[in-house]
Structure formats: C-alpha cells, structure tokens
C-alpha cells in the first residue's frame, strides 16, 4: 500500500470523483475541482490510497503546524472491510510524523437514519488508534464527534486549524463544544 499526492492532472481523477460522490452525502460533499482549488491556494493535501498500484481510496488533509486534520477519507466500496482503511490510517500517521491527526465523524444519533453506520465509523476509528476527545462541532447541518491520534487532545492546535480554515473559507464555521 502507498499514499500518493494527487493533482488535477492525475489519471485517477474520475475514480476520485466517483468515490467522492458515492461516499459523502450532498450536504457534506465538496466537488473535487473545488477541493483542488482550495488545496492549491491553502495547502491541503489530496492523497490517493493505492493497493498494488490500484486506486483504492483517498484522504483530503489540512495540515497546520503540528496538527493534521482529516477533512475527507473514503475507501472504494468494493474494497471496504479488507483492512485497507486501518492500514491507510497507519500510513497517514507516518506521512504526517510528528503531527497529531484529528478526525471528525458524524456523532451517533438514535434519531438519524444512518445511526448504525455512525456507530461503525466511530468504532473503526477507535479500533485503529484514535481516542475520544470529548469535543464535538456542528457544521453542514450535522453534529460531528472529534477524535485524535493521541491520548491528549491538542485543542489549541485544532482550534487554530479551524480558525485558519474559516478565514479562507468563511462558510466553514464550526465551534468546539462539550456535552
């Protein structure tokens, strides 16, 4: 397995767009051309996940100092439940060595139509080395739970990351809170 930095001219852009459209609901999805524009201006990494040379998924990561935020992460549907996601997260930790990796995912909600999926996603991250932070944020009409790769959450670094993203994309304006 390897992680490859993707560009607008990468051969696998159609596969990336297809997976982006399949993996994320309309209210959470950002079109890939918009992501590349934002990436080029603001230093986000769009990384393809490759298994035996074949496109298998992607990460979109925003890094600021010692914090790397997983904005998007998806594995191709036909390749899920084969250990690719967990292996990709381990590789990501090496790729961003010295950074705390932070992820947010839809918070469990018994009233949501996809609560079982939300619980599976949370269990996936916790099983693969992430820790609960006790923090949440709300954006895109959804509550997200925040987890990180270290036992102690570097809240100031993550808040600086969110403020930096908001400065560049004012429509993204979440605020951390605890329940």
- Shape, principal axes of CA atoms: globular
Report strand order across the widest sheet: 1-2-3-4-5-7-6
Radius of gyration: 15 Å
Beta-strand content bin: 25-35%
Instruction: Output the number of helix runs.
Output: 5
**What is the overall pLDDT average?**
94
Q: Largest sheet, described in full?
A: 7 strands, mixed
Give an overview in words.
There is one protein chain. This protein is of the alpha+beta class. The chain has 5 helices and 7 strands; from the N terminus they run E-H-H-E-E-E-H-E-H-E-E-H. The chain has helices at residues 13-23, 32-42, 84-95, 115-127, 155-168, and strands spanning 2-5, 44-51, 54-64, 67-75, 100-106, 131-139, 142-148. A 7-stranded mixed beta sheet has the order 1-2-3-4-5-7-6, with helices on both faces. Strand 3 and strand 4 (67-75) form a beta hairpin. The radius of gyration is 15 Å and the shape is globular. It starts with a strand and ends in an 11-residue tail after the last helix. 28% of the residues are buried. The model has no long low-confidence stretch (mean pLDDT 94).
